[in-house]
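Structure tokens please, single chain.
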Amino acid sequence: MMIQRRPRTLAVACVLAATATLAVSGCSKSESSDNNASSDSSQAAQAAETPESSSGSGCSLQSYGAPKLDLKNAVVGFSQSEKEANPFRIAETQSIKDEAKKIGVKKLLTTNAQSQLSKQISDIQDMLAQGAQFLIVAPLNSDGLEPALKAAAAKKVPVLTVDRKLNATACKDYVAFLGSDFVEQGKRAADAMIKATGGKGKVAILLGSSGNNVTTDRTKGFVDQLKAEAPDMEIVAQQTGEFARDKGQQVTEQLIQSKPGITAIYAENDEMGLGAVTAVKAAGKKPGKDIKIVSVDGTRNAVQAIVNGEYNAVIESNPRFGPLAFATAQKFYGGEEIPENVIISDRAYDESNAKSTVGNAF
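Here you go.
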């Protein structure tokens, strides 16, 4: 029964990679509902990277100190961090719901913090009060959830985090993190940008929201890779677009005015990148040609923009966490150790494959 409430580092074992067929991460935050997000959470299946890339200590049911649990007779809670008005969050929540139903979870509680940290804390505490025995949490920020984590620990309820890391202690405050290698995503975006520009020009970075590891890591990966591989590319601006399409458009409009020599834009999610497309057009320039655009996520609108010639590349950050999250939970309750970080393999889209693979986008 589902209850919708209103108010390249680490990997899991091969058997988990085989069992868990969907991918993770992501970081969109937008008020735009202009998307074609698919409700089929089995589409574009992915798995964790190979065990050879693993590191970090593992966490078992015994070391965590939680009671044994059969998920089919359990109450599971999912805490969504941001408004479900964008493709990433829609697909993420739907994937959790679909997999809970598929494996026969007794009851799934879902909440949405509406991008408010205080609400996410109260949401988690409320689910615990309703008897949640296992929690899947998409943190709004890397810091600030301590009251909720303490409440879960007091009731010996394990917490599995997805798509954003917590600045907390694994196997004490939470079991494990499921998500992408965000530094690697930034590096791959830089490589795509170098390919699109020939390694020359002036690039602006549309930063994600502050306070989480996704923004920090995607920035570091991009900046470091550009410095190492394309010294003739100059980063002329770094300004936050808050992972939102309208803010990405607004910031791009301002940057085109203040930095008229910009020839490329790196957006740390697709929503900001799509906002940049609109701004570039409004300035009388051609996106994808006069100003190259590369972003991270893998939404269908962004991949279609590549097909349309208005975008240059997208590095995927797949939000379909459901199968991997529940497979990880089943392994945990089966007595197996779970790696501190379960890192996902992500695709990439460019003009060479966008037309044939747009159906994989969310």
